[in-house]
C-alpha cells in the first residue's frame, strides 16, 4: 500500500488514461516502468499492453459480485478477474487510507502551486508511515479483507485507452495475460 509514482497537478476530472498516457510519453515525468515480466494492474478502461494488465471485459469483475452471491468463479477468465479485482481493491484501499488520513485531499484547495506540493507531501508522508508505523490504526482498518473499495467508474471503463503503445507490445502483453490465466486456473483446480 505505497505510492510509487504521483502525477500531481491534473484536474480531478481528468481521465486516468490521459494522466497515465502523459506520464508515459513525457520524458520529464520519469515514470517507473515495471521490470520485464512484471506489470501494473489497471482497470477495464485500459487495454493490455507491455507493463499493464487489465481484466477481461464483459465478465464478472467486482469482489462484491462474488461475495454477495457467494458465487465461485466459473472458468479461468472469471478466476483471473476475481483475483485481478482483489489486487485492484488494494489500490482503492490505498487511496481510501490516504484520503482518510489527510482530509485536506477531500476538500478543495484554492492555490494550484500549493495543491501539487500538498498532494506530493501527503504521498511521501503516507509512504513514510507505511514503512515505519506497522501498527497504524488507519492502515489496519483498510487492510481488512471484508472492505471492498468503491466500484470502478463505468464511464472510464468505456472510454479510456492508453494510446501510446505499439501493437507488438499489446500482443506481447496479451500472451502474458493468457499465460497468467492458465497458471491461475491450473493452480485453482489443483487446490
Automatic annotation (TrEMBL):
GO CC terms, sorted: nucleus
Cofactor: a divalent metal cation
Occurrences of domain DDE Tnp4 (ranges): 2-127
Main location as per UniProt: nucleus
Coiled-coil blocks: none
UniProt keywords, alphabetically: Hydrolase, Metal-binding, Nuclease, Nucleus
Protein name from the UniProt record: DDE Tnp4 domain-containing protein
Amino acid at each position: 500500500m505505497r505510492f510509487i509514482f504521483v502525477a500531481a497537478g491534473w484536474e480531478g476530472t481528468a481521465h486516468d488514461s490521459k494522466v497515465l498516457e502523459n506520464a508515459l510519453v513525457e520524458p520529464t515525468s520519469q515514470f517507473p516502468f515495471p521490470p520485464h515480466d512484471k506489470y501494473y494492474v489497471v482497470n477495464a478502461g485500459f487495454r493490455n499492453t507491455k507493463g499493464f494488465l487489465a481484466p477481461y471485459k464483459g465478465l464478472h469483475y467486482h469482489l462484491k459480485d462474488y461475495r454477495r452471491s457467494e458465487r465461485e468463479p466459473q472458468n479461468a477468465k472469471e478466476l483471473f478477474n476475481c483475483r485481478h479485482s482483489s489486487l485492484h481493491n488494494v489500490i482503492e484501499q490505498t487511496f481510501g487510507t490516504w484520503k482518510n488520513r489527510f482530509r485536506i485531499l477531500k476538500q478543495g484547495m484554492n492555490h494550484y502551486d500549493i495543491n501539487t506540493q500538498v498532494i506530493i507531501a501527503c504521498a511521501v508522508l503516507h509512504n513514510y508511515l507505511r514503512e515505519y508505523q506497522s501498527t497504524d490504526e488507519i492502515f489496519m482498518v483498510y487492510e481488512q479483507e471484508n472492505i471492498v473499495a468503491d466500484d470502478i467508474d463505468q464511464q472510464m471503463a468505456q472510454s479510456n485507452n492508453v494510446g501510446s503503445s505499439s501493437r507488438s507490445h499489446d500482443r506481447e502483453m496479451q500472451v502474458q495475460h493468457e499465460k497468467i490465466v492458465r497458471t491461475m486456473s491450473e493452480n485453482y483446480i489443483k487446490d
